[in-house]
Write a structure and sequence with these properties.
Number of strands of chain B: 2
Number of helices of chain B: 12
Strand order of the largest sheet of chain A: 6-7-8-3-9-10
CATH class of the largest domain in chain A: Alpha Beta
Number of strands of chain A: 20
Shape of chain B: globular
Strand order of the largest sheet of chain B: 1-2
Largest interface: A-B, 25 and 18 residues
Shape of chain A: elongated
CATH architecture of the largest domain in chain A: 3-Layer(aba) Sandwich
Distance between the termini of chain B: 49 Å
Distance between the termini of chain A: 35 Å
Oligomer: heterodimer
Largest sheet of chain B: 2 strands, antiparallel
Strand content of chain A: 35-45%
Largest sheet of chain A: 6 strands, mixed
Strand content of chain B: under 5%
CATH topology of the domain at 85-269 in chain B: MetI-like fold
Helix content of chain B: over 70%
CATH superfamily of the domain at 85-269 in chain B: MetI-like
Chain lengths: 370, 310
Amino acid sequence: MNAETGNPSAAAAVEVREVEKVFGPPTTGARALAGVSLNILDNEFFTLLGPSGCGKTTLLRIIAGFETVTSGRVFLFGDEIEDLPPNKRPVNTVFQQYALFPHMSVAENVAFGLHRLRHPKAEVAKRVDEALDLVQLGEFAARRPSQLSGGQQQRVALARALAPRPKVLLLDEPLSALDLKLRQAMRVELKSLQEETGITFIFVTHDQEEALTMSDRIAVMSRGEVQQIGTAHDIYDRPRNRFVADFIGETNLLDVTVENVDDGSVACRLQDGGLLQATPSGEAAAGTAGHVSIRPEQLVLVPPQEPALMQGVVDRLIYLGTDNQHLVQLADGSEIRVRTQAAQQAEKDFAPGDKVGIRVNPGTARLLVD
Amino acid sequence: MAGGVSSSGGHSVSSAYAAVRNWLLAPSWITIAIFMLGPVLLMAVYSFLTKEFRGGVLWEFSLASYDQFFFDRGLFGDEPPKLHWTYLAIYLRSFIQASVATLLCLAIGFPTAYFIATRPASTRMVWLFLITIPYWVNLLIRTVSMKFLIRDTGPINEWLISFGLLEAPIKMVNTDFAVQLGLFYSYLPFMVLPIYAAVERYDFALSEAAADLYADRWTTLWLVLLPAVRPGIIAGCILVFVPSLGAFLAPDLLGGAKNFMIGSLIEEQFKGAAGNWPFGAACAMVLLTMVLVAVFLYARQQAANARGGG
């Protein structure tokens, strides 16, 4: 290790440094990863989140060893691993479609990795029992995968990957094949499993709700680059750029001009003349154009005669169970989404055609400079 | 009342459906009955008839054909019967030749099928097409061409001599090697195609899962890939073994008189100078019985395995 590249970070379970991946010829091929660097800490539930084609699965497969890097380095607890084949890496994977061996019983599936590591028979039997108990599938040990439901197969895949006690567990969209109820239950279970075992989880998903509910930290990816790394609160409340604001949850993006910068707060001029205080995502300069992101639940509708930031007409009201979503048309034709809690605000709801004023909860607008 | 009507209506509809379905299946049943069972029954009957001169048969029951096949001095003579080895040896050699051909086809066919199945989807069809191209030429012509290639003055020997690698030509025609080459060449695609179909359906995520769980390539091959594509391998082996066993072109043209196989033996009884239909039929029946017994034993063992494993 020389001074230029630096030593691998000691605290990191996985360190990905300047990793680039091009499929096909180096110059004309498809660039799946455009120089990704990140540190995943020991005992962390880390999520790679992004739309399909953003490179998250490629990055996971590089850590697992199924893909090679075009350039860059990968460290596992300080050891460089990018040249090791998958069977030499102390990481295990839960595959998207589970990839259970169909000709083996559940117990044989779970024992597969332990046998390859040459554990003694008694030890293998003990660990298989433990792993199956962990996922509450003890009584299914003798079944074939085809005799199990999707949710049970998912648990077998988990038990199989956990049984060798890997240093890092990789999960490639493992919940995407399950129905909604099961998916929600598994989120809680995965999180508590991670806390129980103390294993570092790297979880790939395109489902932002999954990412927000389970992760210690999230890396939001797009077009082969990491857009933002942070806790769920960081990326939801303080998105770094327009992509993150738009991809995570719902948001309203308003075109603004920066009027005046004052240490942590920026005054922004809206298209229709209103002035709005926002927190900037980076260095903002007066006179530049940008976007302000405001979450629909941070907007309040008031009768048109009361003072408000913007004026509009309710176009449509959508009932979402817990919430009401108002689509409000502004004078310039653009549409704003406002969310109110259905249970509380019955008297404050406006019907389509009503003129309304829109207020912003203080401190919730974010200026995106990118 | 209403319920009774509707249920009887439902019943008549479903039985009408079943009748239509049976009628639509009729062509299959009739074809199988006439063209599969018919000839086998005919063979069975002929094998118990009496031989007449110049290829005809007398409609008289006789065990003479089986007697000739199995016993030396005749089952019904004065001396005790003794097993006759001439024909059994031909059968044994045929079984060995067919087994070796099957193993060779498997050894070459499996990697070939794997290679094709792992190409990009757009080029797979081209590879499959290339595999089948030789089969657009008649088998007889291909077998004769093979003989030209490997004979003492054929291109292989000539080249080896002209490059100074050989002093005198290697004798290949009329050897077991030649027969083997002919069988291998004739039936290789029958091994490649079913294995290709199986590997193409194989989920390669299983190989990744095995590697992820610390299996090296050989372990992955033995414990994951081969079990998953086993039905294709078994189908390929049957498709090569059975026709190899009864083949007569390759043994005849490439093996010569010394390397007689079952196919040639039977052919001679029907077409050749021997002209003994009942004996030819008996030879065929013995072969059929052996194959059926082998398949039955295999199926029983498989069933036992499935019970044990499941």
